[in-house]
Design a protein that fits this description.
Layout (H helix, E strand, L loop, with lengths): L1 E4 L5 H9 L21 E4 L3 H6 L12 H13 L19 H6 L5 H6 L1 H18 L1 H7 L3 E2 L2 E2 L2 H11 L1 H9 L14 H7 L19
Helix pairs in contact: 6-8, 8-9, 8-10
Length: about 210
């Protein structure tokens, strides 16, 4: 069965989607997200029998993989937009601050915003660094429950991305009594819960993790 579709994603739709989310963003360079097809777009929707019987048909499913973790966090932080800067100055798909970028060897923020691959590498490097900083907490608290949340490595890493490794240490070692929320009111607790149970084992803890430019 063949279906045909046409679409237009305008700036008003993008602003509406971003502002209606859990964070309010100031959009930079909005026009670059405007997609105007030059012709009719179409796709082939395979029949159910084809899906069941075709061993060569690959449907990507990220699930609880590390890539799934990255994508879920990226959507939560910025709706997956690479060239976005929020009202507090946090940048890119994963909403990096300048201090975090500097800690992994990046000082040119313009280049950072213009380079999606660099942003992905930066995220991996920060995960490696935070894994090392929080290695004792991961070993001590993984699998335990605090404030009704099962603590996992991926939840700890996500919470560190939100509020910094130091804030996560305080939260865990105080039994959840010392919390932290960012400028939009998003709490460490919510990230520990939302990003629980992903497989982040492919990134190894590294004290001096930096991005190779």
């Amino acid at each position: 069965m063949r279906k045909t579709c046409s679409f237009f994603i305008g700036s008003a739709l993008l602003v509406g989607g971003v502002v209606s989310g859990f964070k309010k963003y100031e959009i930079s360079l909005l026009e670059q997200y405007k997609i105007v097809p030059t012709g009719t777009l179409s796709y082939v929707n395979p029949m159910e029998t084809q899906i069941e019987g075709d061993d060569n048909l690959a449907i990507p499913f990220l699930g609880k993989t590390y890539m799934g973790f990255k994508q879920a966090l990226g959507v939560r932080e910025s709706y997956g937009l690479y060239k976005i800067v929020n009202s507090f100055g946090y940048m890119g798909k994963y909403q990096f601050g300048k201090v975090a970028l500097k800690s992994i060897g990046i000082t040119d923020t313009k280049t950072f915003l213009d380079d999606p691959l660099l942003q992905e590498k930066a995220f991996d490097a920060l995960v490696a660094k935070n894994k090392w900083i929080l290695r004792n907490e991961i070993r001590k608290f993984e699998g335990k429950r605090i404030n009704g949340i099962t603590i996992t490595e991926s939840g700890i890493i996500a919470a560190a991305h939100l509020g910094g490794a130091g804030s996560v240490k305080k939260f865990l070692n105080s039994g959840g009594q010392q919390g932290f929320s960012d400028g939009y009111g998003t709490s460490i607790r919510s990230y520990l819960e939302a990003f629980s149970g992903y497989d982040t084992s492919e990134i190894f803890a590294e004290k001096n993790a930096v991005v190779s430019l």
